[in-house]
Amino acid sequence: MKWTEKFPKNVKPAYEELIDFLPERIRELFFLFDNEMASCYKVYNNCPRFDKTFGWTYGYCRNYRVELLSVTIGDDSFNALGVTVKDEESFNVLLEKCKTKYEDGYEERYALLTAAKKANQINRTKSRLAREKKELTELTENIDSSKFNKCKWAEKVSRNKLVRLYQDEAKGLLDEHLLNEIGYTFYARCKQARDTREGLDRGEIICHYCGAVHKAVSYTALIACPCGYYYTYREYRRSCNANNVPGGRATEIFNAFTDNWLLCKSASEKMLLIDGLVHECHVSAMTGEKGRSVCMNLMEGTLSQIKDMLEMLAGSK
User: How far apart are CA 14 and CA 296, in angstroms?
Assistant: First the structure.
């Protein structure tokens, strides 16, 4: 089946599907081409788009989509810069053309566009901050500003206390008071996170002083709680994110701990559950995946400090 027939406009192929479509030898050359673009020119196959003539086409670029070249896919080849790659000879011709294209001012164009984009972003940010400052000033003119958007997020677990718990447990001297303190700190953090995130998804916020639930009528409208505190949905959500309140891809991990902590009866059950959560934090910290590590949601300290602690705990088991 032809490339354009197998992957029409409404069927965007995954990278693996693109690779699988190519004949084995062309696939090997395509891998080499990908590596050459990344290592020599720091451009990557991350700008797919649909062309009426060639079907799905792949732009090789950096951020801000500053493109060096684009690649089209044939039924038994791939093409770039007017070169159809079917063998090593045509592949080498393409590499020479890539080198010429790169040397023809690519870095200069990239630098100019990047500088322009950054300047535009700075100006937009300044305008947004000025606008938001004016909005907040108007909102707080007739209220007690000391009670405006004052969020109280559940504490994170102390690294020192966690280390002491593991050290005592390794000696057979489990401190149940410390165990409960750490467990309930994890629980409070995860429980508040679940209630908060679920509420935000419904357009609701929970007052941190009386527990009242309020429906936000808009992103920036003032929410007045009967207990005397005031919020806006926007600042409440920002505070939530700034405090690394648990959520995102690890929500299932946090929810599992919330659901199981109160079911634990013995100290050994509690320690096992805490250890499972710490293990998930360790895995997240060491995988290098994009996004904030799970451990930053639950433990005090920088990512580097938490990583060192988790490595130490893993080595002491």
Answer: 31
* CA atoms of 119 and 121, how far apart (whole Å): 5
The secondary structure of 99-124, three-state, reads HHHHHCCHHHHHHHHHHHHHHHHHHH
Overall average pLDDT of the 138-165 stretch = 93
pTM of the model: 0.64
pLDDT of 290 higher than 50: no
Ranges of beta strands (E only) in the chain are 44-51, 55-61, 67-73, 78-80, 83-85, 204-206, 213-215, 222-224, 230-232
**Percentage of the chain modeled with pLDDT above 90:** 79
The tokens for 163 are 């280390």
In whole angstroms, what is the distance from residue 311 CA to residue 290 CA?
Answer: 20
**Three-class secondary structure of residue 205 per DSSP:** strand
For tokens 């700034």, the residue is 242
Other CB atoms within a 10 A radius of the CB of residue 68 amount to: 21
In the structure encoding, which two tokens stand for residue 28, read together?
């090997």
